[in-house]
């Protein structure tokens, strides 16, 4: 924690440090001045960040977070891993270097922000339900509910007939 604190101070960037909830994470991430999110990369945090077009600096701690960081960094291009696990040794200089790489006008930082905006647009399109347009998530939910309804009707039909 001390290395992270010193790194945040050394990089000269403004930051909000939330160690324990509750914090209005979605509100913070939706603010136009947020340019990166240091996160453990749990899936809810990933979705909240990318729904707002904010690239991530990943520090996975447990469970699926390690896979999420790998997916986000190597396949989608919206994350840069800064450390791995609870007991890893992290040096201030390494954290500063990665924060600056993401937040400054570097080729990598610009590419990550562009990709994060592209992912945001895909997410927004997937949940859109306007006029005759239904996004892919809305369509999938409709199909799921239709299937559940048919299954329920089928089970009721079978129960009524003693099947």
Automatic annotation (TrEMBL):
Name used for this protein in its record: UDP-glucosyltransferase
Annotated organism of origin: Populus alba x Populus x berolinensis
Keyword match Transferase: yes
Superkingdom field: Eukaryota
Entries under InterPro entries matching the protein: UDP_glucos_trans (IPR002213)
Keyword annotations of the record: Transferase
CDD domains: GT1_Gtf-like
Molecular functions per Gene Ontology: UDP-glycosyltransferase activity
């Amino acid at each position: 924690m001390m290395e992270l604190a010193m790194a945040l101070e050394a990089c000269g960037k403004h930051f909000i440090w939330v160690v324990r909830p509750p914090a209005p994470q979605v509100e913070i991430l939706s603010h136009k001045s947020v340019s990166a999110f240091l996160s453990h990369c749990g899936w809810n945090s990933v979705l909240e960040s990318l729904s707002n077009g904010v690239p991530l600096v990943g520090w996975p701690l447990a469970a699926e977070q390690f896979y999420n960081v790998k997916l986000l960094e190597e396949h989608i291009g919206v994350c840069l891993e800064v450390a791995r696990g609870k007991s890893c040794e992290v040096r201030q200089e390494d954290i500063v270097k990665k924060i600056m790489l993401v937040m400054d006008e570097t080729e990598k930082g610009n590419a990550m922000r562009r990709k994060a905006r592209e992912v945001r647009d895909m997410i927004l399109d997937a949940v859109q339900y306007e006029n005759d347009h239904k996004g892919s998530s809305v369509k999938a939910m409709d199909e799921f509910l239709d299937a559940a309804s048919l299954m329920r009707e089928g089970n009721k039909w079978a129960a009524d007939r003693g099947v």
